[in-house]
Design goal:
Pfam families: Glyoxalase_6 (PF18029). This is VOC domain-containing protein. InterPro entries: Glyas_Bleomycin-R_OHBP_Dase (IPR029068), Glyoxalase_6 (IPR041581), VOC_core (IPR037523). The chain is α/β, with parallel strands linked by helices and 128 residues long. It folds into two domains: 62 residues, 2,3-Dihydroxybiphenyl 1,2-Dioxygenase, domain 1 (Roll), CATH 3.10.180; 58 residues, 2,3-Dihydroxybiphenyl 1,2-Dioxygenase, domain 1. It has two helices and eight strands, in the order βαββββαβββ. It has a four-stranded mixed sheet, with helices on one face. The protein has a four-stranded mixed sheet with strand order 5-8-7-6, with helices on one face. Strand 2 and strand 3 form a beta hairpin.
């Protein structure tokens, strides 16, 4: 059976991207970053193949970003508004996207490198 081990994001500035994703997710460097590669793990991950949350790798490839990107991360948030503001404070940016349905439970942002991700509201929507 397969499972996701690492999601690789293409970046231009590995230090800036690493700072963003470590602060956003509370992840830690698996090892010392190189000039073009770093793997970020959940802090409780005990080995590279431990069955916990997926790791994120940041890779400087020199290839241009594609818009819209073909994959993105969905980040789940109990308090979506607070998380969106926190992530913007870390350097995330709004994406000018006009295709939200009226009942959308996600907000599209991009990280410091232009990689898009969604912040999905997992809070109690029955009160809405």
């Amino acid at each position: 059976m397969l499972r996701i081990g690492t999601i690789v994001l293409t970046v231009e500035d590995i230090e800036r991207a690493g700072d963003f994703w470590r602060a956003a997710l509370g992840y830690v460097n698996r090892g010392e970053p190189s000039d073009d590669w770093v793997i970020l793990d959940p802090p409780d991950k005990t080995s590279w193949d431990a069955p916990s949350a997926a790791s994120i790798a940041l890779s400087v490839t020199g290839y241009p970003q594609h818009y819209p990107p073909r994959i993105h991360l969905d980040l789940y948030a109990d308090d979506q508004a607070a998380e969106v503001e926190r992530l913007k404070g870390l350097g995330a940016r709004d994406v000018d996207w006009d295709r939200y349905p009226p009942d959308a439970d996600w907000i599209v942002l991009e990280d410091t490198e232009g990689n898009r991700f969604c912040v999905v509201d997992t809070g109690d929507r029955s009160a809405a």
